[in-house]
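Hi R.,

Here's the input for the adenosine-5'-diphosphate complex you asked about:
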Amino acid sequence: MLKFEKVGKKYPNGYEAVKNISFEIEAGEILVLIGPSGCGKTTTMKMINRLVPHTSGHIYIHGKDITKENPVTLRKNIGYVIQQAGLFPHYTIEDNVGLIPDLKGWDVNKRKERVLEMLRLVGLDPALYAKRYPKQLSGGQQQRVGVARALAADPEIILMDEPFGALDPITREQLQDELLRMQQEVKKTIVFVTHDMDEALKLGDKIAILKDGVIVQLDTPYELLSRP
Ligand code: ADP
Ligand code: ADP
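And here is the predicted structure with adenosine-5'-diphosphate in place:
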């Protein structure tokens, strides 16, 4: 469904952050990108929605080269979740989820219905949380809202850049479990960046280990664990 073919990124300053990487993931799979800081995880992820345009190779979604697609159209199909949720502080939770550009054309009632459905999906009771503001929620709850927002327009692909990285270990584990439960229901194609191997093994259908801009190993968790 998502395919990288010898993809590279050379930044304008000449730095080659990603070199010649290839992989393919099927619809409904979670690919985890793992590796030390600076190895090219975020660059790789941002090339998928063209926040960072690749400079060599090809990226295909359903066999279509993403450079042939209008970036706005492309991004409508790709949700994005970042570490600190990135919620608008002056909007309620409901508006944070419902006011994304992709939902702009929707009928007010249909949109509201969708927002409430998404909040329930991520385990937040709308009756309690819809009218609150982000700072009235814990970090873990804010991340749930970030996930709800990414899912609201029903994109096929979700990019998650260390979404649980700033949470305490217990909340983090809880959200990992929630993500797996949710995934049973929504079956998204997910690219998940982390530097925590436990998290990678728990969530990944496939795990790509990056080092200095190249994939040094790409395996299922089972294969990774059964190798010396
Ligand atoms: P990671 O997500 O694994 O920490 P990044 O993809 O953010 O790594 O960065 C990979 C490398 O590319 C790093 O050395 C970083 O400094 C460099 N880099 C990132 N963005 C730019 C940029 N805009 N211009 C030049 N170098 C960059
Ligand atoms: P992050 O929170 O993703 O780690 P960074 O602090 O690495 O962000 O980067 C912040 C911004 O600076 C990004 O837009 C990134 O592309 C850019 N950047 C990162 N490293 C470099 C670099 N070596 N040269 C130029 N720009 C960079």
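One thing worth noting: The pocket of adenosine-5'-diphosphate (ligand 1) is lined by residues 11, 13, 15, 17, 35, 37-43 (CB under 6 Å).

Cheers,
M.
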